[in-house]
Amino acid sequence: MAKKLSLEEVKELAISKGYKPLFKDYKNNKQKLLLETKEGYKVLGCYDKMAHRNAKPSAFGNGNPYTIENIKLWLKRNNKPFKLISTEYKNNSEKLTLSCPIHGEFRMSWTVVQRGSNCPKCAIGKLKKDRKLKIEDVKSEFIKRGFKPLFDKYNNNKEVLKYKDRKGYKYQTSVCNLRYGKEQHKFSPNNPYSYENILLWFSKNQPNYKFTSKEFIGTHEKYNFECHKGHRFNMTLKDFIHGEQRCPICARKLKHGDGGYNTTKAERNKKEWLKLKVKVYIIECWNYEEHFYKIGITRNLLKKRFSGEIMPYDYKILDTVNTNLYDAIYLEKELHEKNRKFQYKPKIWFRGHTECFSKLYNKELEVP
Fold this sequence. Notes:
By secondary structure, the protein is an alpha+beta fold. It folds into 5 domains: 7-53, no CATH class; 67-125, no CATH class; 135-179, no CATH class; 186-257, no CATH class; 273-357. Helix content is 31%, strand content 21%. The protein has helices at residues 7-16, 47-53, 67-77, 110-114, 120-131, 135-143, 175-179, 194-205, 237-242, 248-256, 263-268, 270-273, 302-305, 325-338, and strands at 20-21, 33-36, 42-45, 83-84, 95-100, 104-109, 148-149, 161-164, 170-173, 209-211, 222-227, 232-236, 277-286, 291-298, 314-324, 356-357. The strands form 5 sheets. The protein has a 4-stranded antiparallel beta sheet. A hairpin with a 5-residue loop joins strand 8 (161-164) and strand 9 (170-173).
């Protein structure tokens, strides 16, 4: 038979497990012993579970007769403004009676209390208080996000307020939406200032064009535009803003009006073409029986320039140079002259087929 442990030996075990022993006698290893945790909660544990199962007794549970006392201590440790009135604990979902110093008694389960909930009426009062922020506090919410408030009155956090960004574009939103990051786009059917913002965008970014439509519906709808030469055309706002080519009439005249790009035309339009951004490119092209190179100029992205049926060959971009159209024409002419003896005519026609070469003296662009 195993030797019976002494009271001191059991106390030493409890201390080694982080408890303060509050028991004064010991009978056997199944006996429930009163212990105190580091936080001050009273629990019941037995030697067998502590020594061999490393079990931790619960401070809150229907098996612990000190649960009510422990809940009161928990409320104090967590600075809760209310007090526990109930004297009996059944389980963590059973509602307890608590007392708020402002609104009196209310009922709430221990699970909800542990999650950090407070008196329901106090919570509602706090929400109302948030809705009644001072006008200075509301404006600071916009200012700290880089916006300029355009309002002088405030009623609640769902009221729609007017403001503008650093570039001068106007919007409207509520404090509630602002805090959740629900900001408007400058061009949106939900933004009543979209039309005004579009006119501002044109004055800042495209002064040579006019937005002549009288209303705004959405970025995917077509609108009326007019270029500085008086050409009128329509296009979606999205295509106009993000596209490299805008006025289709100017674009056709620029490329095909006098038979394509050439130095004569470059000198005639020098002032205008020095402002037009383009790319000079070298691409390598091939299929199962052909292999050649192409040198050209584009105002579009290369993927867009050679998308779909425009390019019937596989291709790879070898080099590009961003420059203006005037300089690009002379650079392209120089590259064509240097590789003239390698000129190649592809078997499959495509736009730009006259600018192809069987090989190149240099596969990298040399910018003068």
